[in-house]
Structure prediction request, 362 residues.
Amino acid sequence: MNLRIPGPTPCPEEVLAAGAKQMMNHRGPEFAQILRRVTDGLNWVFGSSTDVLSFTTSGTGGLEVAIVNTLSPGDRVLSVSIGSFGDRIKSIAKTYGADVVSYALEWGEAADPAVVGKMLDDDASIKAVLVTHNETSTGVTNPLEAIAKEVRARDRLIIVDAVSSMSSIPCPVERWDLDVVVSGSQKGWMVPPGLAFVYMGERAWKANADAKMPRFYFDAAKARDSLEKLQNPWTPAMSIYYAMDKAFELIRAEGLEGVFTRHEAIASYTRQRVKGLGLKLVPVNEQFASNTVTAVWWPDGVDGKAISKRAREEHGIVLGGGQGKLDGKIFRVGHLGWVQQHEVAEALDIVEKLLAEATASA
Ligand SMILES: Cc1ncc(COP(=O)(O)O)c(C=O)c1O
Prediction:
């Protein structure tokens, strides 16, 4: 099976084997060492000098952690949404009673930092900006560093969904002066789903002291206090920590720059190949095309779902589909985490063959 969805991503055998290890006391010294090593690894990849928290949940849970630990009902927030996941963090904020102002773009577009700055200038009551770094539904990476500068200059909080970018695309949280940044284990980290990682900087902790949104399981202060004792407040998904411990050995061996460069090279290959097939990328401006997932329009008149079905059933190639309003209109090729160029090449060879057959029989 060639799993080319943008998460969950395939995991190296040694990572899976590590995850299959026997259970241990989650409050004992052996697990404490694992938690320390994994947290050190997270700090390194996030570029954080304070401990990144981990929660037993998926990426969406991590986004919920970010919202409920920094905001109060009635707080005005600016949602910058360029796709399905931008809409999701906005929904979480709304669900917990935030007063949301929207900067919503056409799917395929990237956000304009200057517009974010202007919207903040126009409304001094906006307390925080919610933004997706890498919008997995459209294969677009926002110019996060520039957006962060606009937010910083106006002294608001910036809360970032880096679920499908962190560990694959540079996102140094302290260098870019971000406040809250979330990622999820099943993306670029080469481990199964089950853990979300949440960085909270100094301003975020200050906001936390006054944040009134309800929380219990996802209480970041409880997680931080437990981490000081090298524990989790609750029983964690231990197998994923075991796997993560092993995955960091692989990431360290390749080096972070090496990982970023590999993602860049494979993404660039994917885009060239897709365009070579005469297909159109979903990102309107290729400058913002993602290095972790490539989203592509099916040509008019082609039954894309039927092609994806044949790719899976006849060739073992699993492509990502379109989400929400893009359902049936696009396909997505995930190239994050444990991936090599030949795997993408194999998937696109099959797309080429099946498209040719579909067009010939039309
Ligand atoms: C950018 C982004 N945000 C959030 C999520 C949600 O993560 P999960 O499905 O792990 O809850 C995803 C998952 O695809 C994602 O790609």
